[in-house]
Amino acid sequence: MKKSLSILAILVLFILCGCSKSTSAISTSLTQELAVATFSVQTPPEWEWEQDQGIDTFIGRIFNNDHTIYFDQGYLSFGSLDLVEKGDRTISFERLTIHGVPAIIEKVRTPDEETSGDVRLSVYLDAGDGERLNRLYIFDPMDEEIVRAIFKSHRFTKN
What we know:
Oligomer: single chain
Helix content: 10-25%
């Protein structure tokens, strides 16, 4: 009995030590608000954003030394949430609401995309007005929990 309790205690300790950062620890690291023209996101300190040259949509990057999250906002960015579907490359697919806006967070395998990476993590947000559609995505995130937290902090700032 004593031996099985010792084994159980070791297993519990192993599980607790192996757990990733808590949600509250991640939230407290998102201390900077980046106002990106028509939306904002919370990020850890020292993240920046830059607009890129787009033709029919507002595009750019949110980045630090380790991550680059791309965004593509406008009525041509992805059409609607109805067009975002699970496929044979889907790793995870979550429908949710982010600050009152319907959204999907999707993780897919992308081994044949020229842009880089084997995995793409995306959030699609559609306010339902044909204007406020935004897609943020990253290839092979080093810290997926932080990226998901940034995605979930998204707020449209202009109606």
